[in-house]
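EI: anyone free to look at a 159-residue chain?
SC: sure, send it
EI:
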Amino acid sequence: MPVFDLYLPLFWQRIGIALVCGGIIGLERRLRGKSAGILTSILICLGTEVFVALGTLITADTVVHPLRVVLQVVTGIGLLGTGVNMAKESLVHGGTSAAVIWILAVIGSAIGLGYEYGGLILALVTVGVLVGVDLLEAGLRLRDGILPPHPPFRRNRKR
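SC: here you go
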């Protein structure tokens, strides 16, 4: 039975769960003023869900195996996450946003493979980790983890 059928409630259930999962993670990111906000998170989660769901429709008789679809999603998301990382004055920014993009793809893949509630639990755990670690760091008054830039390397040449 194909899952990618507009007339099946399961199709809309998976779309809805992908929207909710991406939305709650995106809302947390937007409230903190991070680069990957609500719209980006929803589109990553929804797009991954659709690609993986379409990949599961491919049978073993075809040239493309469904596992290849998942692997290509991983590659594409890695490239997208790399674009979020930025270096400024020898400091790297955006590592958490890149990691959130990875987990959004994982959640979308889980939903596309039929593990809707597992994807929802992963989204809630992700928000819990993002908020919980921030509260823990604030409570313990930990530093941001950003080190001051090192002085540039200069050779002492004798002339």
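EI: The chain has a mean pLDDT of 83.
SC: 👍
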